[in-house]
Each structure stands twice: as structure tokens, then as C-alpha cells.
Amino acid sequence: MAKKVLVSGGAGYIGSHVTVELINAGYEVVVADNMSNCDMTCFEGVKKIVGRDDIPFYQIDCCDYQAVDKLFTEQKIDAVIHFAAFKAVGESVAEPIKYYRNNLVSFLNILEVSQKHGGCNVLFSSSATVYGEAEKLPVTEESPRLPATSPYGNTKQMCEDILRDVVAATAGLSADGEGPVKGIALRYFNPIGAHPSALIGELPRGVPNNLVPFITQTAIGKRECLSIFGNDYPTEDGTCLRDYIDVVDLAKAHVAAVSRMLDGKMKKDYEIFNIGTGRPVSVYELVTAFEKVNGLKLNYKFAPRRPGDVVAIWADTALANDELGWKAERTVEETLASAWAWEKHLAGK
Ligand code: UD1
Prior knowledge:
Bound molecules: uridine-diphosphate-N-acetylglucosamine
Strand content: 15-25%
Distance between the termini: 42 Å
Mean pLDDT: 97
Helix content: 25-40%
CATH topology of the largest domain: Rossmann fold
């Protein structure tokens, strides 16, 4: 029988792409989402892409222990991919309690229920933000985690540690009653782009914080002008360097990681992988590539640095390449074309 994967936050940006790839790979998927930061657009898109109308959907908040427990009683879950979390860096600085409560409690509930129902494989959606301003680039999984500069970043570090500790504490449990939890943390670099069908993609609420949605919204006319934050950084063109990872490639990394857990291929019960391309791209290069591949001119200006930004970060992807047998494939141009196709789809063009 096909293994069943719970995707918490599965109606959101990354969760919806992961749901598609899991189903394409032959997994059964159960989606849970409280719809706090999305609407049904992406879940409807997922159903169209995979041609299925019967994907179990639970509109629940993972902070509700009883609701998570009920889901695990009704569905025999083999693995969980946990996305359900708040993710706006600036908002987390202004409203830390909201971030700590939501991001920690929901994950604690997932872990407690996983342990209670005979054990489970848990994949946590972490971030390159845990590396902060790294001294040595590219960063490997062994690079030091630096003190987080925002409550959001701190919740990523804390959830990694919670997962590590729960894995260690449950290792001896037999799957008879309470069971062992195994864990993988994937540290994403900068996920961008959309599904090639243009039926699912990023749906930011209000003014986007992230670069690519701001670019596409400027190109479509929803925003007047993109501000490039800082052109006096110590990089070749003065703008920051990031590792932009295509969201479909990223989704495929989740399938590889889940298969590794379910097929008993893990080398340790808790593992960490960087998920990026290994290629640094500057903000200016990204803007220019967007203009070129989509044949348009973007209204942009240089603006002061944004507080909290690191100058450069990109991934050493050797571990993910070797151990997961996964590699980022789409070019940044293809990805930027997909982001633009999605924005046009949203505008009905
Ligand atoms: C941020 C978060 C990261 C999170 C990621 C999600 C931090 C410090 N950053 O990464 O944890 O996982 O979002 O994708 O925690 N930029 C502009 N103009 C804009 C917007 C952005 O020039 O309007 C620049 C930024 O200064 C930065 C680059 O574009 O150099 C990327 O910014 P962004 O998309 O916000 O991602 P990060 O800050 O790298």
C-alpha cells in the first residue's frame, strides 16, 4: 500500500508544490492547513495538476492538539512534512509572542502526536537563516549556526533542536504504543518561482517582503517600483548574493528526503540537509535576468540597505546531492519565467 504523508501547511506556497510532487511519486497525501495565510487557490490548483479531487483536506490549526490527535487517529500517517508556521521576519520582530506560540506549539503538537501514535518520520522545514552572516561560504551543514536575528529565525533554530531532542529521546521506543520519531531538517535557501502549469505559486498577502513576488507585482503594475536594498555591499555589483532555489526542485528534495526516511536509508535518526543550488546570484543579476527572460523592463531603483540582511549566503549542496541523490535542475531563467507566468495567471492574463 502506498505510504501516507501528512503535509501540514499543505495549501501554502511550498506545501502545495510538495503535495504535487509527492502524489506524482506515488504517495498518498493528507493536507492540513488552517488557511491563516492562504486561500484555496493553491489547493484547487494542486487538484487540477494531479487530476484528483479526493485528496483528504483537514482545515485545522496544528496548535490545536485535539485536532491533530484526531487526524492521526483517522489517518495512518507514515511521515509528516511540517510547513505550518508563520514566516515574516519583520512581523516576528514586532509580534514575537505570536511567532513563538504558533511556530513552537504547532510543531510540539505534531511531535507529541507522532510519538503517541506509534512513532513517525518527521521532516521539518528549516531555513538557511540559521547560518546568519556566515564567515565561510558556501555554508555546509557543519557551518556554525549563529544567534538568530529575529524571532522567526529563532523558531527555526529552536524547532531543529526540539526535533533533534525528541528523536534522541524516543529512539528506544518500540512502535508498540508510543514509538520512535525520526527526523530530517531541510534548510532551504531562497525558494522562488512557480509550477510550470502556472496553477500554483506564491500568494503573498499585502506588500510582499520577498524579492521575487515584489518583482512580479511591479512588472504587472500592482507596485510602482522595486527598491533594490543596498548597492554598496562588498560584492561585484554591490548588491546582496543569495542562492535562489526553484520551488519545484525544492519540492522534489522533499520527496527524496521522505523516501529516504520511509525506505530506511537514513544514516542517523536525525539528519540535516542544505537545499539550494550552490550558485550565488546577486539581486541585480536576478532583476536583469527577469527582464531578459520575460522581455520586459522593470521599474526599479537603488535604495538603502534593509536592516537585518546578510551580504551573501549560498549553499554547499554536496551532502544533499550525494545522500539524497537530488540536485537542483531548473535554471534561474526558467524559474523566473515561471514566476512571471504565475503572476499573469493571477491577473487573468
Ligand atoms: C528571507 C528570510 C529567510 C526566509 C526567506 C524566505 C531572513 C534574514 N531572511 O530571506 O529566513 O527563509 O526570506 O524566502 O531571515 N530585496 C530587495 N528588494 C525587495 C525585497 C528584497 O532588494 O523588495 C533583496 C534583499 O535585500 C535580499 C534579497 O533581495 O538581498 C532577497 O530578499 P528576500 O527575498 O526577502 O529573502 P531573504 O531576506 O534572503
